[in-house]
Amino acid sequence: MSQVVVVGAGLAGAKTVEGLRERGYDGRVVLLGAETERPYERPPLSKGYLQGSDEREGAFVHPPDWYATHDVDLRLGTPVASIDLGGRDVVDGSGTRTGWDHLVLATGSEPRRLDVPGSGLEGVVHLRTLDDSDRLRALLGAAPRVVVVGGGWIGLEVAAAARAAGCAVSVLVRDPLPLARVLGPELATMFAELHRANGVDLRTRTDVSEIVADGAGTHVGAVALADGTVIDADLVVVGIGAAPRVDLARSAGLRVESGVVVDAHLRASDPHVLAVGDIARAHHPFLGTHVRVEHWANALHQPSTAAATIVGADEPYDRLPYFFTDQFDLGMEYVGYVGAHGYDEVVVRGDLANRELVAFWRRAGRVVAGMNVNVWDVVDDVQALIRSRAVIDRDRLSDPDVPLGDLL
Ligand SMILES: Cc1cc2nc3c(=O)[nH]c(=O)nc-3n(C[C@H](O)[C@H](O)[C@H](O)COP(=O)(O)OP(=O)(O)OC[C@H]3O[C@@H](n4cnc5c(N)ncnc54)[C@H](O)[C@@H]3O)c2cc1C
Fold it and tell me: With 80 as the cut, is the pLDDT of residue 153 above it?
């Protein structure tokens, strides 16, 4: 009987085994995960779950008995140490070898660490796992002064959660604006204003030079900046991005270019190995280039393509990148890909000052990405605009009286 081994029991791993069973794969399926929790989704960890409004159970991808009832051999607390491509097996931490006919890598990302003196002090934390979120929630309740290092999505969501918990919050950003590299200055300014309006002490163009210990010497007491400023802190949350976990793939000899390089069917340089989720640098037929997308929707949907490839179906993955965030009273969705060529302009339809709008990133008159902020049910229309590659009249694009569906 054939066997598929999936390494990494996060969202992408769990959806891969689900996809295999949905597509009628009747061989053996083994899901190996380093964590001891069954697969769960991470977005609630910096939002509702961190704030205490979402139930823990809601984060899990499947009910506890799902794996047994779908004949999936789920082995938790089982980090895979190496892959043998020639021998077609993997070796886990205890030395057990598990053979495969197809191997799916879904090892996700890990948070980047702050490399300054004092970053190992107690009270300096990262956020990736359910345990991290539990710990952070408890700490927020007991830490009046929180410093968030980094102004990316997770840093800003944690800042919002910390404000909701009643903490004084400083956010330290290296760039002139948070999120500027993803959104450009036009929309990044909106997020900066949102945080300042909610009492966050947002400091841009800052560089952390040291985490300073308190009087006892073991716990954080302050954060020192390169310009000499010192900010008192009871808790420091480091949110400076994540790196794909590609060591296993690289050591096995698979092609890795800051992500496991895969084709549109998610096959790696060894076609019996596939990669999904945060680690996959996949060729995207619509975008015409390889992209690696560190977002929930990608981890949710790519696995169905991987399962299709394994059962012999021809279904390239070409969903447009999509992500979302919730911060204070702002909810937004972003779809599309601005890419290496950037954009010429951002066209706003709606009210930027009141944060109720749809923004379009345009290149040569064509919409390459769109973001709806506190406006809902427009993602399909925005995707249709992007996929059409049509040159859209600027005035009609910005006019809320022209329905999005009438623009094409
Ligand atoms: C706090 C937080 C909030 C987020 N919020 C959003 C959001 O609002 N919107 C959005 O679009 N995205 C969000 N994301 C990103 C999204 O969660 C990720 O893109 C998604 O989790 C990727 O899924 P994955 O399965 O590829 O990887 P992961 O979720 O990282 O799972 C990989 C799993 O593989 C395991 N593993 C690694 N190496 C091995 C090994 N050698 N052997 C066995 N197991 C191994 C890991 O322990 C982990 O459990 C958020 C992420 C975080 C951390």
Answer: yes
